Amino acid sequence: MLIWILYDIEKDRQRTRVAKMCKQAGLYRVQFSCFLGTLNKNELDTLNLQIGELIDEEKDKVYIFPMSKNELQQCKLLGQAFDKNLVTDEIRAFFL
User: How far apart are alpha carbons 6 and 41 in whole angstroms?
Assistant: First the structure.
């Protein structure tokens, strides 16, 4: 399933570790605090637990959105939706 992960994490160290976890899980960075990619249910559960153990639940915000390919292709991208320095052709292919 396609997964979006967006976060607002207060401390640099935890924010960096969450980004590394997302990359290691195979997600692609589309903005500094926004990742997109495909995970199976087990991979998603594992990443969810890892992030949950790392963040400060009183201060940090993490959004995990599962999405079907059809729903993703209905997304509207406005303005500079992606950071051009971060997005690869693989990410652009999700929206074709």
Answer: 18
Strand partners, 62: 7
- Residue 94, pLDDT above cutoff 80: no
The sheet carrying 34-38 orders its strands as 28-31, 34-38, 2-8, 61-67
Q: How many CB atoms lie within 10 A of CB 28?
A: 17
Number of Cα atoms under 13 Å in the Cβ half of residue 16:
3
Each residue's pLDDT tens digit, 28-78: 998 899 999 999 999 999 999 999 999 999 999 999 999 988 888 888 888
